[in-house]
Amino acid sequence: MQLTNLNMHVAGLLVCGRDPGVMTDEQAHAAMQLHIDCTVDRCLVRRRARTTLVESGKCVLDERALQL
After folding, report:
1. Closest residue by Cα to residue 34 from 23, 47, 45, 24
2. Is there a contact between 30 and 52 (Cβ–Cβ < 8 Å)?
3. CB contact set of 67 (below 8 Å; sequence gap of 6+)
């Protein structure tokens, strides 16, 4: 098993169809970068990461994104 320097299994961040579970802000930021070409409606990793960052106040969504 390989771990990232973020203390999360690499496989947990790479597969779009697998919810990685609870993330720290740092892990969420890394996930957003890894899944930069993904959309939150199709990628569970990006969706979880965005939710984490929004809930911690690190990311503010505009009105277009609030429809999801």
Report:
1. 45
2. no
3. none
Segment 39-43 long-range contacts (CB within 8 Å, at least 24 positions apart): 40/68, 41/68, 42/16, 43/16, 43/17
pTM reported for the whole predicted model: 0.77
Helix (H, G, I), strand (E, B) or coil at 38: coil
pLDDT tens track, the chain, 68 positions: 344 555 555 666 889 999 999 999 999 999 999 999 999 999 999 999 999 999 999 999 887 766 65
Q: How far is 53 from 68, CA to CA, in rounded Å?
A: 16
